[in-house]
Specification:
single chain, mainly alpha, Wheat Germ Agglutinin (Isolectin 2), domain 1
Length: 204
Amino acid sequence: MQTREMLRSVGRPFLMRQRAVTELLLADHTVDPKSRDTVGRTPLSFAAKYGHDAIVMTFLNNECVDPDPKDHYGSTPLSIAARNCRIEVVKKLLATRRIDFDSQDCFGHTPLWWARRRGNAGIAQVLLEKRGISACEGEAPVVACLTSDDETSGWCDICTLNIPKDEVYYQCGVCSGGDFYICLECYKIGGRCVKDGHDLVPKT
């Protein structure tokens, strides 16, 4: 199984019911919990995307796991959890006191920016409380359309958000054997694949 597929499997629904499997794998000294896929994401990043807070806690309780790794695009598990509206994961990551809650991705977006972009006032409030301030009622969030996050949905390898059906996206035929997608919004603001010179083909 390819490294990318193996890491993504952490996010598939069957593992939500099998925290013990994750614990067993972490107990195996031949398994590296800090391993990364071609985008630089760790198993913790994928657990954060899919909102598997029990598995997130399993990783966070392992002293070998970095709770705040940045991927190729500067995204951390906290940022990924915020943009995918995973409030329980956000709370657990913040509770470690070992993360930078103001970190920026390659586009200058913070977890708070993503929470507001996604219209998630709950996550925005949690992040603001971490800074010791309250949310301003006059700051209206920019609500983004929430899309299906089931395991069969395609999603953008830059922002990690799901790509709605029939929406234009871009695919790199080289990276990860063609399993590499960029949504139209990320493409428009300059998002490209991890390797220079790779052609991106528009798809629907």
